[in-house]
Amino acid sequence: MPTLALLLAAALLGDPASAKEKTAGNASQSEIRLGMSADFSASARALSIELYRGAMAYLLPLNNAGGVNGKQVVIKPYDDQYEPDLAVRNTLKLMDEDDVFALFSYVGTPTMNRALPLLQMHHDKHFLLLFPFTGADTNRIPPYDQLSFNLRASYDQEMKGLVDHFVAVNRTRIAVFYQADAYGRAGWGGLRRALDEHGLEIAGEATYRRGSPFDQSYDRQVAIMQRLQPDAVVCVGTYPACAGFVRDMRDRDVDCPVATLSFVGGGAMLKLLSAAEQESNRDYTSRLVSSQVVPSYNDESVPAVREYREAMDRYRDAIMLPDSLLYPHGKTAEREYAPLPYGFISLEGYLNAKLFTAILQRMGADPRRADLAATVLAMGDFDLGMGQPLSFGGETARRQASDKVYYTVVRDGRFVALGDGEWEAWAKP
User: Fold this and answer.
1) Whole-number pLDDT of residue 419
2) d(CA 324, CA 243)
3) How far lies 142's CA from each of 16, 146, 148, in Å?
4) CA separation for the pair 298, 309 (Å, rounded)
5) Which of 122, 282, 383, 418 maximizes the CB count within 10 A of its CB?
6) Are 344 and 267 in contact (CB under 8 A)?
7) What pLDDT shows up at residue 88?
8) What is the CB neighbour count within 10 angstroms for residue 391?
9) H or E stretch including 387?
10) How many CB atoms lie within 10 A of CB 287?
11) What b/e string do you get for 85-122 counting C-beta neighbours within 10 Å, with b at 16 or more?
């Protein structure tokens, strides 16, 4: 708390020595800086790394071609290790020292929840949080809804879709495994509201501590599920814990369908489970469904997916973060990160950068932070090549561009789309 108090005091008082160097909300002559606080080195790092890589896959060729109106679009990344206090420190630095144009693609609910009050404290400087990687309601409802814009659908929308589909195939006893923090509670609340629409209640729950690794035992949580015997389990967590939980569920012959939300990180989870399958000769990836908020990265009939895959192939090595962020305590073979060729999360990062560029192009040669919100709200209907209409503004002053939720299952070692007519295969006997 003393550290946080000092940080907040610094935010209020400012730094007179550096004030003369600020751009007063205008972009600099040469670049437009976006500030990103995310976990690049700890338990959820695959989420943040892939989101950043996807964004850079769009921005790198854009900048090589001259940027937007002659200005380079630059992401200033800081590592918060998925810890709220570090996110506070990073956010203050991005606003007060780096004077970024906007905050961009923050990763996680617990960290975003601590950043939003700082934006409110700086409301006179017009900072906004653009396209965070979370579906929580914190930035979608008062008092913070005017401080952010979202591309993705919400966790409530993901949960409602999963519950509606499970109930339609007579799977009504739905339990939840969730992270014991603001993210987990956001998902838990979405599940409760979705079940309430059907006159149902959560069948039972098990929690885990944020940062729990894949290789720890989840037998305690699985024992709860064995006792409950649910028709389905929804996971609201990050990929290491959810993969470990699924592994231990199947090892103890709990074979009901398991659903995961988009934030879990399906690609990273699948990588862990596939490796574990090879070691154990057990099936860890069937009866696994994942809700997503972007199209399948394998669906090349979608124009944006084709663009994204070409960019990821071309710039694979050039879009990686520096080792100083990835390995703050030194690079070792055990900690070396192997990037995914493609994935839902890097596709979302690509679309986030594409959307910001579209907004920036509407702001003219001298974009000002004070004009950012009005520019986004004036966009109306637009197309990012996702195969679906998107919109901001309008009569309801929409601040979430997409309401679309997609569903995927694992086949032949990769996630593929699950069509509406295919849910019958999941019907309760």
Assistant:
1) 87
2) 28
3) 33, 8, 11
4) 9
5) 418
6) yes
7) 98
8) 15
9) none
10) 19
11) ebbbbbbbbbbbeebbbbbbbbbbbbbbbbbbebbeeb
